[in-house]
Amino acid sequence: MTTATPAGRPPADLRNPAQLLAALPYLMGFRPARSVVLIGHQDPGDRDAGLILRGDLPRREHRVHQAQALASRFAAGPHTGVSLAIVGGRRRPGGPPPHAGFVDVLTDELARLDLPVVNALWAATIKEGARWRCYANPECGGELPDPRTTVAAAAATERGTVAFDSRDELEALLAPRSPEALARRSAALARVPCPDVAEALSAIRAAFERHRRGEGPPTDEEAVTVAGALALPEVRDLCLAMAVPPETPVAQEAEQVWLTLVREIPAPERAQPAVLLGFTAYMRGDGAFAGMALENALAAAPDHVLARLLKTVLDRGTPPEVIRGLAAAAADPVSALGLQPADFDAERAV
Fold first, then answer.
1. d(CA 88, CA 97)
2. Which domain, by its residues, includes 252?
3. Calpha distance 253→272 (Å, rounded)
4. Residue 112 sits in the same domain as residue 192
5. 212 domain-assigned
6. If you average pLDDT over every residue of the chain, what do you get?
7. Whole-angstrom Cα distance, residue 21 to residue 150?
8. Total tally of structural domains belonging to the chain
9. DSSP 24-42
10. 239, 283 contact by CB (below 8 A)
11. Are residues 217 and 278 in the same domain?
């Protein structure tokens, strides 16, 4: 299993191995465990990471295949080098860090792409006081600082984002609230005709108003109505446009609404709010959560064109600004949906 994060996440000091390891939870959105993490270098100052890619640590017989799969993802990007971080395993006293053979294989595969390994690092876990080591220099190592004190943590806090303790904890946010409710709604969706645009806009507006009132999960009727509304391309495009500019009150509230709907709408209709959620997370640079949302969309509707497109560009490490044009809409989405801009600012202030 791999997780890709595009350029655009919080800054990190790529020149300081301890700081780089400690920053991983904030660069990825969750604390990696039993993982290999590859961080692309793309600027001379080594302050901004390029593509960040996480993979599971492979068995010995799968090392070459895993190394080839990971290294190939850096072939098309504008990277000047790659840092490797192995998280997990136990180091024997006086011995090299674990998984050294896999690091050698990865180094060889990256060299085939003319990408030098700038740092090859190991830590048993990512927490304050954990021991870390370099693979190339036995004198290089020490104890990790508190991850919350890193530059990446400060930038993430300013953005209002958090680092989860595990990938599973982050993925659990997308789990259905009630499988029984989904079964009822799936049957109802088969009988409900597609709404017209005016009805669809009204349904989306009602979803935002319900979220602001804190009314909890939608009723079966409300969930079915909004699922039909998101199926209209005109409405979906307006909703996409709410993601830009990222990290505004509009984008933040929209992301919460889409997350709620992902948990409340059955497949295949669930793919629509999952794509909106993935795109919104992508625009703010959260590749881990964006990838999970897009995988959720493709699980619901494997042929969903936009979900597949976004997953492809995310896996290539494409910066969010490159695909921001997908959020273009003919009208201002807030006004078109009948919402009041001042209400978003009020929500932000609460």
1. 10
2. 170-349
3. 17
4. no
5. yes
6. 88
7. 10
8. 2
9. HHHHHSB---SEEEEEEE-
10. no
11. yes
Rounded to two decimals, what is the model's pTM? Answer: 0.79
pLDDT, tens digit, 9 for 90 and up, residues 54-87: 899 999 999 999 999 899 888 877 788 999 999 9
Does residue 107 share a domain with residue 223?
no
CA distances (Å), origin 56, targets 1, 17, 73, 252, 345: 6, 21, 15, 31, 41
Q: Which of 120, 165, 125 is nearest to 144 (CA)?
A: 125
Interval 78-126: pLDDT, tens = 788 999 999 999 888 878 899 999 999 999 999 999 999 999 999 999 9
CA distance 331 to 186: 32
The residue from 100, 132, 160 where one domain ends is: 160
Phi-psi region of 25 (alpha: psi -120 to 50; beta: other; left: phi over 0): alpha
- Cα–Cα distance list, 338 to 78, 291, 335 (Å): 42, 31, 5
User: What are 163-177's pLDDT values in tens digits?
Assistant: 788 888 888 999 999
DSSP 32-92: --SEEEEEEE-STT--SEEEEEEEEPPPGGGHHHHHHHHHHTTSSS--SEEEEEEE---PP
Q: Tell which of 160, 181, 206 closes a domain.
A: 160
